[in-house]
Amino acid sequence: MHHFSKRATAAAICLASSAGASAGVGFETADGWKYSTDGWIILQAHKQNGDSPDTTGFRMTSGTTPSLIAFNVTAPAVDGMTLSSRVGLYINAQSGEGNFRNAGNVGNTGAKALDPREIWAKLSAPWGELVFGKAYSIYQGEPVLADASVLAGGLTGYDNVNTTNALAATFNAGYMYTNFNAGLRYNSPQSAPLTFSVGVYDPSQVRNVFAGSGADRTNSPRVEGGAYFRHQDGGFKLKVYGDFTWQRASHCLTAAGLACADDTVSTRGVSAGATADVGPFNLHLSGFGGKGLGSVLMQDLDALDVDGRERKSRGVFGQIVYRPTAALSLRYSYGRTRIDDTAASQGHLAQSHIAGAYYAVNRYLTVYGELANSRFSHNPVFQHRTDTDYATAGARFMW
């Protein structure tokens, strides 16, 4: 079950360092072209009980990750090099205006909105890999890959049950979601124990959507990189990593529309962690720290204060998975993120606990249940403390 879940998670994130998703349906032509399709359908019932009406409700949704259908093409090898490509189309099951709202089955419903998160090509050669297109970024990809909720339940963004955003796994606390981005990435040869990746990406505006401040002009790409060490000895597997991100944006304006103290803001962050398999246990521990990154979605929600100053944030995420049988996985995770106060904006401490059970009925069908709690010392959506309990039951069909 753990191997199956990790393979599925790798497909979900589609980190460019991997060889690509494991295809379920495909064929090969006589001259060596390969075509395949893979994907999953996810649906879950999700009940929140919060300490305010805005954090209490019931939804039936696609879960942390939307359902997916993906298409893969690999060309015949030429001069020792292979070109492959992937297009992944994501879709949410819930009804409503836009992708993620439950405003009723009217208008342009979420079930009609395709989200093309993955559109990339990869050149593989003995000297490594070049990946160009839209794929998941390098920074903090490892905790996303490790999180058992990435293809299951998790939490809603800032505990807002009717949020216009999708469910956001444990991104409320412990690590940040850096998103799928257009860019060019190099991966060193993956056969070595020590590997590295470096990439340049389409930059983002740096904002505080709650306060209205932001820097919206980008004159250079975002740069990210990571180093990874893998070791295996019998039933023991270890992966240790460290990564970073850096970017600038200019034309910074305050919430009042005035010029910030500095016209240019810089965002920077580092993270590190380890994942280990020891017999029936899988353990993960990671942490991050940064400035101008924010606390949930990198650079997009609360990276700046009201006056346009970069905010400091840091977090830690830990998870233990126990596999009593090949089909059953039991999980507990804890995450916490702190974003500091500034002279103009109040910070917060966010904490999350998730316990889950994931059962593989067969190689294609998994059912799961999760219980969770999320706490904010000062929830930036509702401007007060929140304490929210979650109960989720769902199913996933994967091919």
From TrEMBL:
InterPro entries in the cross-refs: Porin_dom_sf
Keyword entries, A-Z: Signal
Gene3D superfamilies named in the record: Porin (2.40.160.10)
Origin: domain of life: Bacteria
Signal peptide: 1-23
Identification of the protein by name: Porin
Phylogenetic lineage: Bacteria, Pseudomonadati, Pseudomonadota, Betaproteobacteria, Burkholderiales
